[in-house]
Design a protein that fits this description.
38% strand; seven-stranded antiparallel β-sheet; alpha+beta; Pnp Oxidase, Chain A; 3 helices
């Protein structure tokens, strides 16, 4: 299956750009957070603590938006609307490590981005997003 991301914008999903994730709060308000993410060729993968507001929002309403702004050109961006296909704890540490490698160059999240002692109490999840509508500009 070909990627829904146009070739001229793949750098905005493949490189280490902090993106904005938007979800819907229970009262209908928009909730936005800056997140690390990884593109696996078909899905956007985001890791989070399982108790985070974004996770609660996405469990209740799987509609999501991800916005990537080119850090070298503020007139160039990628807006992705999609659906959360899965929220799972399976493989979350390995995915955190992939994110850490992409964004910082370090091999492991715990011990570099966060203290190693926090690993034992971490209850994380991977949010798997399937893009449905993509708009690029610039």
């Amino acid at each position: 299956m070909p990627s829904i991301i146009p070739d001229k914008y793949t750098d905005l999903v493949e490189t280490a750009i902090v993106v904005t994730l938007a979800s819907i709060m229970p009262d209908g308000a928009v909730h936005q957070v800056a997140v690390w993410r990884r593109w696996d060729g078909s899905h956007i993968l985001i890791t989070s603590d399982a108790t985070a507001q974004k996770v609660k929002n996405l469990r209740a309403n799987p509609h999501v938006s991800v916005f990537a702004l080119d850090p070298k050109n503020s007139g160039r961006y990628l807006s992705i609307r999609g659906m959360v296909e899965e929220i799972t704890p399976q493989g979350v540490i390995a995915e955190l490590d992939r994110h850490t490698k992409l964004y910082t160059g370090a091999d492991e999240y715990f011990g570099s981005a966060e203290p190693i002692e926090n690993k034992a109490t971490f209850h994380g999840v991977i949010i798997r997003i399937r893009p449905e509508k993509v708009i690029g500009m610039g």
